[in-house]
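Q: I have two molecules that I believe assemble together. Could you output structure tokens for the complex as a whole instead of separate predictions?
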Amino acid sequence: MQEVSTRPRVVIVGAGFGGLAAAKRLAGRAVDVTVVDRRNHHLFQPLLYQVATAALSPADIAAPIRSILANARNVRVLLDEVHDVDADSNRVALASGRSLEYDWLILATGARHSYFGRDEWAAHAPGLKSIEDALAIRRKVLLALEQAENETDPERRKALLTFVVIGAGPTGVEMAGAIAELARRAVSSDFRSITPHCSRVVLVEAGKRVLSAFPGKLSDDAARSLVDLGVEVRLGSPVFDVGSGYVQLGDELILARTIVWAAGVQASPAAEWLDAEQDMNGRIFVEPNLRVPSRERIFAIGDTANAADRSGKPLPAVAPVAKQQGQYVADVILGRRKAAFAYRDFGNLATIGRSKAVIDWGALQLSGLTAWLIWSVAHIWFLVGFRSRIAVAISWLWSYATYQRNARLITGEHPSTPTQLKRLPTLERKCA
Amino acid sequence: MQEVSTRPRVVIVGAGFGGLAAAKRLAGRAVDVTVVDRRNHHLFQPLLYQVATAALSPADIAAPIRSILANARNVRVLLDEVHDVDADSNRVALASGRSLEYDWLILATGARHSYFGRDEWAAHAPGLKSIEDALAIRRKVLLALEQAENETDPERRKALLTFVVIGAGPTGVEMAGAIAELARRAVSSDFRSITPHCSRVVLVEAGKRVLSAFPGKLSDDAARSLVDLGVEVRLGSPVFDVGSGYVQLGDELILARTIVWAAGVQASPAAEWLDAEQDMNGRIFVEPNLRVPSRERIFAIGDTANAADRSGKPLPAVAPVAKQQGQYVADVILGRRKAAFAYRDFGNLATIGRSKAVIDWGALQLSGLTAWLIWSVAHIWFLVGFRSRIAVAISWLWSYATYQRNARLITGEHPSTPTQLKRLPTLERKCA
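A: Yes, here they are, computed for all two components at once.
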């Protein structure tokens, strides 16, 4: 390989939808690109809830970043973590102790869940952002069913079979629907003591409706679909407390062994690295061309950025925004674009469960089976890598035809955590 | 469900090949069966090395025990761990504190790796028995490649790219072949600093040949296939010491960041529970009808048992033996068989890598592509569950056509463990 130091160096931090889109757009161009990510894989986050509910395997929705970029010979991939940015000397500090010099820096570091200052809730109500998160939730849900099967005390069995999802945005709605399908349907014939109608799935939302980013009619359709699946939808119910095995909603205490957090996200600390002005979710307020104010050579995109649309409203934290921003920023670096970033909105999709989804295309609003088919095709299409598409398509067809889940594995350090019972459970199928 | 206490109660400990075969044979018969396993899934162990080398996902080769037995209404599955057996009162003690009473007990508890009394080696040379083991090895192998890509010190890079497999039985041969394919071929175009020929894979064996259970000609064919894949085969090389980053063979010290143990197994402590006579691997010497001596109602099968064939030689610790023993024991319990157990040997298969396998059918011995095709079809056929078969078949066809691996994910608590380097690595593709 020839000496390359005279070409502009672009450092991309984070290989989510935004960072990856930028790297792909810069591939083969006269720039030297380094992609830094603390994980070796790009994750198709919109399907992560399917890993958490045992429908897909991690490898179905994740691919090594360096495989995706293997043919981009001007792109290097570095497994490392950014700790700081020195904008004056144009350097990024890495966890390994090394530093990277850049001519252009793209911050695409994404977001984590946020507990609104109640970080102690995290231990009891895990969120869903990484493969580890998804496997931890899968383990929790499947172990609760196993323990319920062995439990004879009616109160404890009830708590084991109660699943609470906090937050009714797209992730919360998908999780609630998928848990209901898993716990009330997919596994029902496998157990001897518990029966499908024993499981209770509660979706808790502080606001007035589910999927608040969608028009009211679609929110209503989604809520109805959830109820059809057996989900209790609790609107206007802010959470007052979360602890080991319970959720407090106003006067009501729900005892539940499994609680999932889908209520809030917080951007990564990129704003702190740059001492940049941030919104309440930690996202950097960026200029119309996605530059960080007063940092000519630094862009922030995706969930890291608070970018306003034409009406001044912040763009939603969704994959298409991040992707288009990544491509835009790459074009700016290559000198091909000068105009401000403009988001082309191709519509908004959310799924609830088997045959149930909603689509908002502005004038056209769809729900039900048609929406679900479009959602399925779109998600398979956008999956990175031809092979993942086939694998996921087959898994879905299989699940659809048989109601079965493929990835019902309890793995981890202590695979069996049996309940502390002295008596043998009865063989009757009763539901306390 | 009706009162069932008058029917004989069969307790099966372990849902590997032996325990599952017994449970299936007892399904729908006039017995009440309880299967106890500390994991929720049955594992198709012969393909576990493919999970460890990123070719398959865990869910491709594992299925929930209770799904497999869902239609056997007289069979219950209990996620729990057996701690002891009280043969005088016919009870099994569980980790949960409960106990189970039995009329017949089948011990099918399997085996773990054994370090020949050098348990301190376990931390440096993990073995391959569970999904957790496989994911840990996958993580180790993939991280070594990532760190090698970032490493500038030639000695350390060399150690990162050296993979040692200890033990040249079927598992060791498969692991060495698969690691060579992964590290020297599958990932080669994804890296910028390391090249395929940098990776060194060493298969270490104390004995005189690989696959010692096979005829000499097939051992030679297998060794040649390994060499073709770029594996260094070191026969007659007992291991003197294993430590952090090294293996000591006689005078030679091999520096290697990744060491895999495939040299020995040790049966689970079932012999201790019963105070039964055991062989040097902890297996219970059983009677010709697979009963534990002087325990009329207790059978031991599979890797838990040392059962002699007609010539007095112990049967090999392979899946077909365990399966046939499970079926046999179920038949004995049902009163359908009285004669001693006789193993029907349908041949011995082992694979080395892409298009390379060996088959021993006694008179007919095969190696190369034909053997590999037969091996592939046989393994897909025996995979539990129709869906896994499709998934694995597609993964294999995909890998075969593209040389790619599907499941190259580094997951776990600390996904990035960067090396401690100060300098930026060079972009040259050189191999120290």
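A: One point stands out. Residues 9-113+265-333 of chain B form a domain with the FAD/NAD(P)-binding domain fold (CATH 3.50.50.60).
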